[in-house]
Amino acid sequence: MKRFFISLFRKNSGLSSEELIRKKTFFAFFFFVLLIGLGAGLWIWLIHQRGDAGIQGGIPKPLRVVLNANETIFRKVFSAEHLVKTYPVSAASSRVRVNGNIGLGSDFDPAQWKLQLIRDNGDTLFIGLEDIRRLPKTEIIYNFKCIEGWSQITWWGGVRFSDFIHFYRLEKEASHGYVGMSTPDGDYYVGIDMPSAMQSQTLLCYEMNREPLPMNQGYPLRLIIPVKYGIKSIKRIGSMYFSDDRPPDYWAERGYDYYSGL
């Protein structure tokens, strides 16, 4: 390629300045069109690739390979000792944004709610909000980040997920690779890698700004997981189970990164 360009311009000294400009403009335009054509061809090839199946549906396989490679890197460098930055109460917003309402149907009856926790032996624990509130309370004020591009400093209260695990003697369940959660109506669901779930700042949250969660923020119980984008902080948790395989994840099925780490 280097020799090709040298041969093209070796005799430029015999050209007028206008001829030289025209020659360079022609070749610049030629290579610009060539690059556009190559890019368009690559895009056409990409969008015609078969989409990945199951819980990783929604995007062509080559793109999912890149996302999975990113996850491998993130998981290797993740440390539960690395804490997300926290802020004073004065920095917390009094008007908290809502990052989606999927799974928050109006037909929900709070009086009938209990968290359904499926254990490895097939038993299901039915855990009420008051049961969870009896556990040691933890608060966090951090910068909640939405995958749509906005962020906001918010104040949450609840029980550490790790404390919840130990209180209900779920160490065996927590030895699996993932925890899956879904809303009571099943419309929204997430899968979360266990190291991130067990990080000390991850909360099963029942308060916002020292008040009970509003309905549009996931009353009576939601997840707050600061090491992830907001799409993983599922609202109104209805059920929970544990698995070594990736649980279904609503946004991963629609082309987003399964890991969604920060």
Structure description:
- With 262 residues, this protein is an alpha+beta fold.
- It has two domains: 2-47; 54-95 and 112-254, Alpha-Beta Complex (Sulfite Oxidase, Chain A, domain 2), CATH 3.90.420.
- The protein contains seven helices and ten strands.
- The strands form two sheets. A five-stranded mixed sheet has the order 2-1-10-5-6. Strands 3, 4, 7, 8 and 9 form a five-stranded antiparallel sheet that branches.
- It is elongated and about 90 Å long.
Task: Set out the fold topology.
Layout: H1 2-9, H2 17-47, H3 61-77, E1 115-118, E2 124-127, H4 129-133, E3 138-145, E4 151-160, H5 161-167, H6 171-174, E5 178-182, E6 189-193, H7 194-197, E7 203-208, E8 211-212, E9 222-224, E10 239-243
> What is the fold named in CATH at topology level of the largest domain?
Sulfite Oxidase, Chain A, domain 2
| Helicity, as a percent range | 25-40%
Largest sheet: 5 strands, mixed
Order of helices and strands: HHHEEHEEHHEEHEEEE
Number of domains: 2
Features:
29% helix, 10 strands, 2 domains, 5-stranded antiparallel sheet, alpha+beta, Sulfite Oxidase, Chain A, domain 2
Short account of what is shown:
The protein has 262 residues and is an alpha+beta fold. The protein is built from seven helices and ten strands.
